[in-house]
């Protein structure tokens, strides 16, 4: 046998056995995903509820809202079918108004805020019954609807909702720190903003998460902070961050009626984002900016006409560890069309071009300025 053939055979044998000794490549499991979308306050001023077709309000954002697994919003009024619509300061909604938001895809609601008891105990009970009926009617549908914040009996512990989809389990808690009137507060998830109450509430959250193991805990707080003020105070930030350390995954805070800053928290070691704090989504729909200040778009009062929809895509690996895979921020604005209808539009270049095309130059320039203002609102990522 020649050396040439000897070496060829030896090499072939070596390769054969080397290949057999290599471990099989492990298959990488695709993580499970869940998309959550957070909007702000759904309000009904006279200009809003005077519309004949409420579906128009939501038309432009419906694909975004309905495309998420769970879309969250705050209903800023009692919902009492026995009473007529009522504007500020004592709100009431007829069911058709918030049900248009449900038709648009919103399916998780906080019912508790400073206006929840505007119509006394009747308003509280009717709102709860309305929510319970929708929950019951939708529970076997492809898109069940959930409500939180109002209790059936006075003095109950702070209530929460268990929300499931596929292999995902969410623990949702909604509370308010502020009420416009003190009566019947014992029917509501009400936490007075004080050091003692904050500590007790924090421990309660630890307890219910331990009793209800879940993938995500979402906390809605209708905050006792001044309205229309952009920066959050350090005391408030420290409190929210302490709740994150206690096991809350997302803090979704509202009441100021303007878009405020947001924070995301990640792990240095894994470089994975884990938590989010939203200090204010602003108004999703309202009539507060009924007369835009076209000459001074920076007018702080005009902030009430804009909102933020934050989309978070969570992933869960084979070890059941969750993280935020993707963040999308969508700014929106309440536009008054030529029929004097208040409708939601995306605060983007496409909308500006549309306004220019139809000759609403004043509106186009105004929206351009408002777009820059919202885009400059602070977003921070903290690695720890």
What does this structure look like?
It is globular and about 55 Å long. The longest helix is centred in the N-terminal third of the chain and has 19 residues, at 3-21. Strands 1, 2, 3, 4, 11, 12, 13 and 14 form an eight-stranded mixed β-sheet that branches. The protein has helices at residues 3-21, 46-49, 55-58, 62-66, 96-103, 120-138, 195-211, 234-245, 349-357, 361-375; strands at 32-42, 70-75, 108-110, 146-148, 160-165, 168-176, 216-222, 250-254, 262-266, 273-278, 283-285, 306-316, 322-336, 342-346, 379-383. Helix 9 packs antiparallel against helix 10. The chain has a single domain, classed as 4-Layer Sandwich (Purple Acid Phosphatase, chain A, domain 2). With 384 residues, it is α/β, with parallel strands linked by helices. It contains ten helices and 15 strands.
Explain briefly what this protein structure is.
The chain starts with a helix and ends with a strand.
Labels describing this entry:
29% helix; 384 residues; alpha/beta; seven-stranded mixed β-sheet; 26% strand; eight-stranded mixed β-sheet; 10 helices; Purple Acid Phosphatase, chain A, domain 2; 15 strands; disordered N terminus
């Amino acid at each position: 046998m020649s050396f040439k053939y000897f070496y060829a055979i030896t090499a072939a044998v070596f390769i054969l056995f080397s290949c057999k000794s290599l471990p099989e490549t492990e298959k990488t499991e695709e993580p499970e995903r869940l998309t959550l979308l957070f909007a702000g306050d759904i309000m009904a001023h006279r200009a809003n509820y005077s519309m004949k077709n409420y579906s128009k309000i939501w038309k432009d954002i419906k694909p975004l809202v309905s495309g998420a697994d769970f879309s969250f919003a705050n209903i800023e009024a009692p919902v009492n079918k026995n009473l007529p619509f009522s504007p500020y300061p004592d709100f009431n909604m007829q069911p058709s108004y918030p049900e248009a938001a449900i038709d648009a895809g919103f399916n998780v609601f906080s019912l508790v805020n400073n206006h929840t008891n505007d119509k006394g105990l009747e308003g509280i009970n009717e709102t709860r019954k309305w929510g319970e009926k929708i929950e019951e009617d939708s529970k076997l549908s492809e898109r069940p609807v959930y409500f939180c914040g109002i209790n059936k009996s006075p003095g109950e512990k702070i209530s929460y909702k268990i929300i499931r989809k596929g292999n995902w389990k969410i623990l949702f808690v909604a509370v308010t720190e502020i009420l416009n009137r003190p009566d019947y507060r014992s029917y509501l998830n009400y936490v007075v903003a004080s050091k003692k109450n904050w500590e007790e509430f924090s421990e309660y959250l630890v307890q219910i998460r331990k009793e209800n193991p879940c993938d995500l805990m979402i906390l809605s707080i209708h905050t006792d902070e001044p309205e229309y003020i952009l920066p959050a105070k350090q005391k408030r930030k420290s409190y929210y961050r302490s709740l994150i350390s206690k096991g809350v995954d997302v803090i979704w805070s509202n009441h100021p009626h303007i878009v405020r800053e947001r924070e995301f928290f990640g792990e240095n070691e894994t470089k994975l984002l884990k938590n989010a704090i939203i200090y204010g989504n602003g108004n999703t729909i309202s009539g507060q900016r009924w007369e835009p200040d076209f000459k001074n778009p920076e007018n702080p009062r005009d902030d009430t006409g804009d909102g933020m929809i934050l989309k978070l895509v969570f992933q869960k690996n084979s070890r059941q560890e969750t993280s935020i895979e993707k963040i999308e921020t969508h700014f929106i604005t309440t536009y008054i069309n030529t029929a004097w209808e208040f409708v939601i539009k995306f605060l983007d270049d496409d909308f500006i071009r549309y306004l220019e095309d139809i000759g609403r130059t004043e509106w186009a320039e105004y929206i351009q300025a408002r777009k820059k203002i919202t885009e400059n609102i602070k977003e921070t990522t903290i690695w720890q």
